[in-house]
Amino acid sequence: MLTMFAQQMQAVVVAWQVYDITREPLSLAYVGLAQFLPMMCLLIPAGDLSDRMSRKRLLTISWLLASVCSCLLWLLSQSGTQDVNWIYAVLVLFGCSRAFSGPALQSLLPQIVAREQLAKALATNSMLMRISAIAAPVLGGLLYALGGGVLTYAVCGISLILGAALLSQVPVRFANLKAPSADDQSTMWQRFAEGLHFMRTRPIILGTISLDLFAVLLGGVIALLPVYAHEVLKVGPQGLGLLRSSMAAGEVCMGLWLASRPINRSVGKVMFAAVAVFGLANLVFSLSHWFVLSMLALAVAGAADMVSVYIRGALVQFSTPDHMRGRVNAVNMLFIGSSNELGEFRAGSSASWFGVMPAAILGSLCTLGVVGAWMTLFKPLRDVDKLEDAARVGTGKES
């Protein structure tokens, strides 16, 4: 939780600081690009490394590297530099640390939590990530207002170091990694291809990851919220903030529910239903001219998305043997990152071509179409009853 807050705070504050220096909106694109590109480029070796060494050690090193980035940003703030290129350079290093921490963190959880408690732990983890995404920017803004980048980056660095220290005390009880043999001559790309082959022959994993990819890629409306707030609902920046927080509130409320009452039966059908509700809620939002209805629709979409995220994460973890979780989770993160980034591009370009409301309606209908198609293409995924059943599904050639 400490490290989640620290990384979220740092991401928000550094964007504010760069814009404060440059007053150029394009500089914010460079802030995102500096972190996104190294993370995407390194996810494959990061996933491979997660399967070949202690994930706990790899995660500790990644968090310590992130704390070094916080210290460097603290030094730059202390010096009062106006050269944002130094900040971009530090953000590239920060993106590298996130590339290795992501697969390691996702793959470590099944090693420290008993299998019968894994579903509840995954729900709690998803909820904490959403809470940090909501609360950390607020806390970061308060710290920046009180002491600028010097105070904020100091808090981030200390939090990351403390998180790494606490992690060192967490016992790894269920590790089942295959240690690389001395005569293993396979390359990283061959091992990654092995992971891809494993995913391709498992309809549970392939269907789950690709369903989320195309549902978000085609049907996400987050990128269009500023246009809706300004042109359709006419509620201004305050209304935009409420729209964004509505979806987040739905996610957090559903996360709290799932943490106490995990889904235990008909998980495949529930996942498809959740993605369908996500598409329908976005369709209601797309057609709405009433602010309250728009907020409710986004809250429902957020809750449905949390159900989908929870089941997707659990199915991937239960379906994947421990010695391949790093590679599979790396591909999962690659798909998630691509769907979010490309989804925003798709939404913006569609809005410029067809208009904002037709683009949002079309995207929502595409999401519903994906649900129908995937229910036919991935019958083993649809028929999964319990999360534990996912590990017993075969290669799925019948799908």
Structural notes for this entry:
The chain is mainly α. The protein has two domains: 2-167, Growth Hormone, Chain: A (Up-down Bundle), CATH 1.20.1250.20; 188-388, MFS general substrate transporter like domains (Growth Hormone, Chain: A, Up-down Bundle). 81% of the residues lie in helices and 0% in strands. The protein has 14 helices and no strands. Helix 8 crosses helix 9 (236-260). The relative contact order is 0.14.
Keywords:
14 helices; single chain; Growth Hormone, Chain: A; 2 domains; mainly alpha; 399 residues
Concise structural overview:
Helix content is 81%, strand content 0%. It has 399 residues and is mainly alpha-helical. Helix 3 packs antiparallel against helix 4, helix 3 packs across helix 5 (115-167) and helix 9 runs parallel beside helix 11 (291-319).
